[in-house]
Design brief:
- It contains 8 helices and 17 strands.
- The chain is of the alpha+beta class.
- It has 2 domains: 144 residues, 2-Layer Sandwich (D-Amino Acid Oxidase, Chain A, domain 2); 98 residues, FAD/NAD(P)-binding domain (3-Layer(bba) Sandwich), CATH 3.50.50.60.
- Strands 10, 12, 13, 14 and 15 form a 5-stranded antiparallel beta sheet that branches.
- The longest helix is centred in the first third of the chain and has 15 residues.
- The protein is elongated, with a radius of gyration of 21 Å.
Amino acid sequence: MLYKFAAKKNIPFKKTGKLIVATEKNQIEQLQSLYENGKANGVPLKMLSKHKTKALEEEIKCERAILSSESGVISVPEYLSALEEDIKKTGYVVLASELIHAKKINGQFELTLNSSDKINCNFLINASGLYTEEVANKIEDINLSKIKTVMYAKGHYYLYKKKNPFKHLIYPLPNSNGHGIHAGMDIENNLRFGPNAKWVESIEYSFDENTLDEFCNSIKSYWINFDSSCLSPDYTGIRSKIVAEGEGGQDFEILDSNDHGLENLIHLQGIDSPGLTSSLSIAGEVISKLGIH
């Protein structure tokens, strides 16, 4: 869906493919499990031997790898701008406005903003990322029993200052806190590594350069000619999590009236890593739950 949308809107993208690598023999069983799970979900994957992986990426060190041929990269700013332009064709965007309170009156939601302005709507979708729990608490008569506490997983990214030698995205095996520190690229082919995962108590985006050793140790496990002196701090981000650190992977959740008791309200929680890539598909699921055609 994302590739079709990008092509239609002239948004730059590249279908690079992705390699998920098992760097030690004791990781092969986990890689096989990941492969079987992906195949069961209809993802086009191939299991590659060490030699076939080497033929694709000569600088990669691994025992075996999964090739995800459909993976790629997209210009995120241009994607978001295209979504905003589509919204403006049939509605409007209100920026820098905090929700103070929401309540249902005669089958409609009435939203009060911090400007004291009010917005009425038939459908309400809480897709506020790090603030989903906070927003839910401002909705009158909502059943909060399935609304989960949002926890913050901070991730750092480092830029690699030399030429990118990779044609594919390179991912180590996922761990209990996320997908691991992977090698990614942007549309201009700049090479970045990240994110790591560190649970934090508050939303702040300072860069902790003490993470350098963690990054170097991870990257050199799968990149033979890695030059640690070429890593440069780039940026940080925070993912919305609905499990505590070390509790393992948790899919995001899309709650409807069966979960929280309010018709025509959709609550999305824990939308982290696949949220952008899967955003159009998530939107389709939301529309389906609302019964809109």
